[in-house]
């Protein structure tokens, strides 16, 4: 990920509803959620939610997949990984052991 893409992602996350959507989709995991389910869970209007989902997709933070007649949304883990890698590219002055406590905090337990 380059600086331009990182800034787009941060811009997308600078709005409270979009940040809430991303966190909700991260929690939903592989099952994802339909737009209506996301709107209901966050108490948002569906037309507003559609716009927010579009911004997050443009930023590469979420993805969608058609399942039958509906579209489900998922956190784009590759996009998130790219953003985190961009932020931590030069972490700890080249001493990976110093970064380990941070990495342990942000990774899923086995």
From TrEMBL:
Gene Ontology MF terms in the entry: DNA binding; DNA-binding transcription factor activity
Leader sequence residues: none
Keywords annotated in UniProt: DNA-binding, Transcription, Transcription regulation
Transcription regulation in keyword set: yes
Domain named HTH arsR-type: residues: 1-95
Keyword Secreted: no
CDD domains: HTH_ARSR
PANTHER family recorded: ARSENICAL RESISTANCE OPERON REPRESSOR ARSR-RELATED
Protein name: Helix-turn-helix domain protein
Organism: Roseovarius halotolerans
